[in-house]
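TICKET #2291
ISSUE: user wants both folds in one file
ATTACHMENT 1:
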Amino acid sequence: MFNRYNQDVAGVKKLVVIDGKSVFYRGYYAMPNLATKDGRPTGGVYGFAVMALEVIKKFKPDYVAVAWDKPKTNIRRRVAIFPEYKANRKPAPPDFYEQVPILHDLLKAFGWPLFEIDDHEADDIMATLAKQAHAKHINTLLITSDYDVLQLVNDHTQAALLKKGLTNIQIFDEPKLKEVFDLTPQQFIDYKSLKGDSSDNIPGIRGVGDKTAVKLIHDYRSLDGVYQNLDKITGSLKTKLETDKDKAFLARELVILDEEVPVKLDLNQADINNLDAKQLIRLLRELEFRTLINQLPDSMKATQEELKTELAASSGLDFSIKPEIIYTAKDLAGLKLNPKSGLVIQARTVGPNFSDLSHLILSDKPNRTVVIDLTGQLDGKALADKLKSLMEDESIAKIGHNIKSTIKALMHLGLDLEPVGHDTQVSAFLINSLSRELDLTGLAQKELGYEGPDLEDVPPMDVQSVAPRITAVIWGLYARQTKDMKSIPKISDLAQNIEFPVIPVLARMEHKGILLDSGYLKKMSSELEDQISDIQQNIYGHANREFNIASPGQLAEVLFEELKLPSTGVKKGKTGFSTAANELDKLRGLHPIIDLITDYREHTKLKSTYVDTLPKLADDRGRLHTNFSLVVAATGRLSSSDPNLQNIPVRTDLGRRIRQAFVAGQGNVFVSADYSQFELRLAAVMAGDDDLVEAFNDGLDIHTRTAAQVYGVAMDDVNKKQRRDAKVINFGVLYGMSPHGLSQATGMTRDEAKEFIDRYFELRQPLLDFIAATRQKALEEGYVETMFGRRRPTPDVKSSNFVVREAAYRQAVNMPIQGTEADLMKMAMIKIDEELSAEADQLLQIHDSILVEVPEWKAKKVAKEMKDIMENIHKLPVSLDVDVEIGQNWGEL
């Protein structure tokens, strides 16, 4: 970004002075939610680091210094002149100041001195350093967003002004200042004096803007010249100048920068060669600025390579080990493994089907890698016979990355893999549930400083050469994560007792799959096609023309221009009024076309997403295999994908019809066990609401009881609307429901909704206290946790953005409850697998329910046993209630 001005002048050295807080602010607001895995905010530091590295690479300075506004005292001198100076400035948010010590560490690594002094602002310090540099025959570049420094530009000083973000920068010398403002540096002071500066609350001449100020300076050369020629100026402008003369000269006193600040430019201290490259790279790694490490200047590459070697050595990584390759039955027969400390295992498959196993990678110690190659003469049966006892030996901990995929691949060979001793992907998520670097390569780079070929998408022909890196990285991550989790015992217990044991359960569910009646869906697709056509024609009839209903622009034109529907309160973007579902809800009841559009969208979406797509995903046995992930939802809830079976609507007729396509095999039925009011019961326990716990334990209808309490009537006198209102708030309060939200959901007025919520919390004071305590914990400790110790970091509760901050608080309040629910659900799945696997196959876990397939004659017995297991999975003060249903298809349940 400095290329135009990056011209070396023979024999003249260069100093860069950075307005530290100005650059820091830019980074802070550009990256408001950036934080390390332990929740430390780092956006401001990141912005500064970006600029610092860009300065080194593009401008190649000989010296660098940083000027800083000393807190509380920097504007004291100017405030003495004008008490309202910068009075409109808001203090920075708390997480801004949290980052300042980190910046100091960064500056120390760069070897750049930081100057801050009482009674002088950063731009005064910059002016002084530029003057001292000139006396030493050194050129200076001033990096800031403060235009006041333009008064300093001359033949030895340039200014780099941050116009937007960190990349839109304009560099000024005197010719550029003349080109842009048509002013000289001295005239720029007088120009600012006439027009004032609202950002600093500096008064000028009222009614004098940019154009008038520039014209006055052109006509009379300076502020003094303007007032010396006041008799030549007429009309209202003369009156304004006369009235506000004192303000103009006061403004000039405030705008002029002090070049005599008591600071001294020490060239040895500011020398660019003071940079400690090793410490800088270590710090960037610690701050998780991986992209910046990849963009380091060439001068640091050698140091980076040294550090990679050091880091790899300290992590126990050794890529020099030659893999042992097993090609034949003879090789396999001679294979001996002694996994005293566990067995690292990873299957490699080709194509989307887990049955297509190409290689099995094994490592019984960190300095050994075995690759079993199944692409040649070696067959799966021989491999299964050789490894069966090893794989099923429960005394040998199996270690892997996304080990569920390996378990599924081995199932196709008839092998069970138990137990899971450690999964590096799941462990990384437990340590930081906000992390998105969960692939093996990304984790290796972030945690171990790995640089090398990709460890995920390895072509079969490259597996042998990459295998030692894969096993070395998994061993390295295993050692580091085990150490990290020991420092948080609850996380370690959670992993060993819930997360790792549930992995084989999920693998078996995914491997089994659920039978799909594709013929039923084909018939349904044809019906939907006719229904969509009818809806489409109805919409065209109301619009009096055909148009693309799926086009937001065309739809908005029909609704708001042609049909003249009211747009008040409807969001408007760059391309016109929004036609999103929540915006169309505001128009519901005003015209029949709105309901038709909703129906059209539901029909077309469900047809394309499920009805037409699901049959294509079924295997040759007609079974559909979803993927349940443990590393998506920060609450710990399972996430379904490929296909996502959690999003099939349960309350609409179309959704229920789609679910009917999921059927039990011949002679079998489905048993569904569903926790009733799970979150509310857990909320009562975690909030210590004894009254609510007692109500649940007495078997009362909690919504009716809540309505009776809030409305002050007997339970027998509660009507349907009152119960519905109570149900909305009972569930909505856990998600931070506001009076506006309650009024939208129930039809209450805003005042009625507010009164309802206030009365609710009078009755539920423990719940209100729980919410307050959870918010406080999120703010002070930087995380919230479930009953079993699952954590969610909460860096965004310190965001300066109100919307971001409040959303983070809502997530923080909900997480302990919903996360505990997820933990208990997994415990139930593990227990059901242990006790009922011989009688029933778990197929799906959707929200609060578990679906199993079982021979019809065993259904009632299994239903009773599932209910008993789930209701007693953990001793709690509140009773858990599980509803069980039996049916031939999912839609019946």
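ATTACHMENT 2:
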Amino acid sequence: MADFYKTFSGNSQYRSHLRVLQGAQNRAGNSTVISGTEWIEKTSGSGYLTYNSGNTGGCFGDLAFGAIAWAPYDFTAYSSKQIGSGSDTVVHNSNGTKIAAGTYAANDSAGGNFGSANGSWSLGLTTIVDTPDTPTSVACAYVSDTQISTSWSRPTVTNDAPNTSQIRTKTNGAAAVELASISVTTSVTISAAANQKIIAAVRESNGTGTSAWSADSAAVYTSPAAPTALTATKDASLDINLAFTPNVGFTEHQHVVEHGTVSGGVTTWDGTELATLVAGTSTYKHVAPNAAQLHVYRVFARNLDVGALASSKVTSNTVQLLVAPNKPTLPALGPFVDKAKDFTVPWSHNSVDTTPQTAYELGDSTNGGSTWGTTGKVTSTVSSKSFTASTYAAGVALTVRVRTWGEATTGGADGTGASAWSDLSTVTFKTRPVVTITGPADASTYTKSALMVNLGFTQLESATFVNATIKVYDATPTLLETLVSATRAATLMDTAVNNGESYTVKVTVRDSNGLVSDEVVSGFSVAYTLPVAAVVTAIYLPDSGIGQLDIAVADPDASEAAATLVTITRKINGAVETVLYEYPKAASLTILDMTPTINGTNNYTITTISADGATTGTPVEMVTAEGEWGFISTGEGYSEIIKFGGNFAFDITPTVDSTLIETAGRARPVALYGTTGGLEVSGSCVVVEGYGSTIEEIEALLKIPAKGCYRDPSGRRMFGLIVGQVGRENSAVGSFSYVVTETS
């Protein structure tokens, strides 16, 4: 066998030994000639062995060659005897491989030492393998709450190269736990969990042995555990004490306290941290928080390393500090109230600690506050006190004050948690006014279409009438009109009542004391005579584009009323315009409509009106079909008119209001469109003497500073600003161009 006993900087010393097993069989196959079962070795001589132990047969010359073997220099399993020179040395490379093979000889000699022939053989030297050195620079890094990255360095000498690595960790200060061996590497990701402080060490092994454990790495931390059981309680000093249970598995952390306030169910957190608490601290006192607020807190753990990982946040209960409310607010009560009605004194509870009213005390005085009556402390959340009707006589001035309690039972004005007394408020009791409807009287028949209301008024303490609120309803009943009138007599309503229908008037009045009467009601029916209807003929005048209405109004017969006024309205494409308003009636009238449509339908209604406001309407239709001429009218009543149309042509330019807005992130501006716009019509024509209006007439009209009405054969009819230009080629021929811009 071959082996090495020691390495020196990658070299090894190798020495040869010869050992012989006692009892070995000789070459001739004879039985054992040497007794014993041990190896014996020769440590002196020139490489051959002589037996001198008293046995007969006496030599080893006949030993079988296969009984010879090699052993290392430090062989100690038996009583070793070195044989041979004992000084042969083989040098190895620094990586443990041999430089040259050694050849060793065992020589036979005369006298029968090893037989009759020499023998020699070579030894093959294996690569030296040494125990790995200890790894260095072990470091851990946080990847996630479930993974930690660990890395290290190892020496570069190759004859101690490891073939396995072992990792051990210490978690939260506990004893080291060795993880499973892994194939040799210099980094590995190990499992972790939240709330851990992890320290790692590494060692390495090969076939020769195992290194020592490395120095521990610096600690790495995962997210700390959130605290639990967070409670907030107030104390007698109106401070708020926090307590919680820390759950972090290591000391390198702090707990952070945040403060918020609650209003209307919405929590607003402060912009800065309220406090940071060192590890091992589980309480905090918030000194003198605002008693007017509802307080809430949250706490979380945060690591102290550069990663500063934090736990989730735990929110406390809300805490209301209890202090006495401010004095309540009394509204102005008067100056006067109706003594015959229940009277209620309201107030506003002005909490400091946001707790609602739990009780009140109201004081009353009828001598200006010289002496006071009181309700005593009344447990109630209602912020008002009612006095029954007629408790006080007319003319009595009542002064009141009030104080309230919240949930506080100490402090305040008297040590019971009460507020201070409110400011005083005084009201004088009076009798309400009474109103009557004298016309139209209840259950009467009203004989006019124009509704006139007359009222009566009384007040026992001589207060004066201020105004009346009059409402008119039809029979369904639907409110048709509400009018506030400053007069009691002959208030003319806007609503015209219809013949044969029923109506109701409801009225209240206000007096100089500010008191309002009860509402009174008058229901009445309407019966009156309708005026005589007009007889109408409508004629279109193509030379001027005017509509002529010939109206005849006959005298009434026995079933009709006389007409006193005439009103004319015109409807074009659904739009209604007034042509004539309440013009005095005559037996015959000719009315000129200066701006009808010249290509379309004009629907007129001629309404006759009687002296009592009754009306009768007569419809009439005028259809026009102008296909050649255009007209522009202007001046008072649109009475100035020009007519044009030679080679007539026009253009229409509608517009929509819009604007462009530059916006971030858009390569082009955004267009915003309005709901309004404009319309512009431009046109031109030839002016021929004796054919339509003259150049002089057109020029004169363009100089009139007034809105114009433009009409053309397309049926277009628009009002607006008109500008134009005229030209003359010769005495008989000229030109006219214009632009019409629609205006309101």
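RESOLUTION: both attachments delivered.
EXTRA DETAIL ON ATTACHMENT 2: Residues 529 and 622 are 30 Å apart (CA to CA).
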